[in-house]
């Protein structure tokens, strides 16, 4: 993929999807730096960890200024607990938007001069939550919708020096899957709603991110790549009373 020796920063790359992305880039021969507020419980061989609070603009600017080179930025850091809108005040919801939308913008701006110099690439890690109702994570869904829009605008403003794309990620099996889907029975039940019959593995997301960052995607910018196993089966099909035999 032409990633050998490239310098890659993966935000939130210490666990889950971020660790899977970082591992894929390491295996592709890249020099990988992962950043998060806390170090990983299990260090990733071949990747360097640096502590960074992405919601601190001055710290983010200093972090990227200290890098001698940067070829790829993967804006992966994000997430949210399950929280219905009326169960929290506006400040808590705003912090979710800050982490999932403002922080990627802050990091991208801080990385821009490096990326422009080498004709580099930004990969945003979006979510299917940005394109459908997200009860219990409304602020997160709104932020991910904004992230996808931001990436498209960045791709136009920063062309031709910097390519910017988004991975629109579906459900992924990580060490925290039980918090979203329950135990093995819950994960199995949710997996049956996916056309491909399983949740994604972090390595699936890593492979897609590496592709978008690579020379194989040299003419792809401003794109949103769906990585969701075929999407979600429409709920109305199970409620309809006609054609049940054909559907099953």
From TrEMBL:
<dbReference type="InterPro" id="IPR020904">
    <property type="entry name" value="Sc_DH/Rdtase_CS"/>
</dbReference>
<dbReference type="InterPro" id="IPR036291">
    <property type="entry name" value="NAD(P)-bd_dom_sf"/>
</dbReference>
<keyword id="KW-0560">Oxidoreductase</keyword>
<comment type="similarity">
    <text>Belongs to the short-chain dehydrogenases/reductases (SDR) family.</text>
</comment>
<dbReference type="InterPro" id="IPR057326">
    <property type="entry name" value="KR_dom"/>
</dbReference>
<protein>
    <submittedName>
        <fullName>SDR family oxidoreductase</fullName>
    </submittedName>
</protein>
<dbReference type="InterPro" id="IPR002347">
    <property type="entry name" value="SDR_fam"/>
</dbReference>
<feature type="domain" description="Ketoreductase">
    <location>
        <begin position="6"/>
        <end position="190"/>
    </location>
</feature>
<dbReference type="Pfam" id="PF13561">
    <property type="entry name" value="adh_short_C2"/>
</dbReference>
């Amino acid at each position: 993929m032409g990633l050998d020796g490239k310098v890659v920063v993966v935000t939130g790359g210490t666990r889950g999807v971020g660790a899977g992305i970082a591992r894929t880039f390491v295996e592709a021969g890249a020099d990988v730096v992962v950043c998060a507020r806390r170090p990983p419980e299990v260090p990733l061989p071949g990747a360097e960890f640096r502590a960074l609070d992405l919601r601190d603009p001055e710290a983010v600017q200093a972090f990227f200024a200290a890098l001698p080179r940067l070829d790829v930025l993967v804006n992966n850091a994000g997430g949210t607990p399950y929280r219905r809108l009326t169960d929290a005040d506006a400040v808590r919801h705003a912090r979710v938007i800050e982490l999932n939308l403002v922080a990627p913008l802050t990091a991208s701006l801080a990385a821009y001069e490096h990326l422009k110099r080498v004709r580099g690439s930004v990969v945003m890690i979006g979510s299917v939550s940005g394109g459908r109702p997200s009860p219990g994570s409304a602020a997160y869904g709104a932020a991910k919708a904004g992230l996808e829009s931001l990436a498209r605008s960045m791709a136009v403003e920063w062309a031709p020096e910097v390519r910017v794309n988004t991975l629109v990620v579906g459900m992924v099996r990580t060490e925290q899957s039980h918090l979203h889907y329950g135990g093995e029975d819950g994960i199995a039940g949710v997996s049956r709603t996916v056309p491909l019959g399983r949740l994604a593995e972090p390595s699936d997301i890593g492979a897609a991110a590496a592709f978008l960052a690579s020379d194989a995607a040299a003419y792809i910018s401003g794109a949103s790549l769906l990585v969701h196993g075929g999407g979600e089966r429409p709920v109305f099909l199970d409620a309809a009373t006609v054609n049940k035999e054909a559907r099953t």
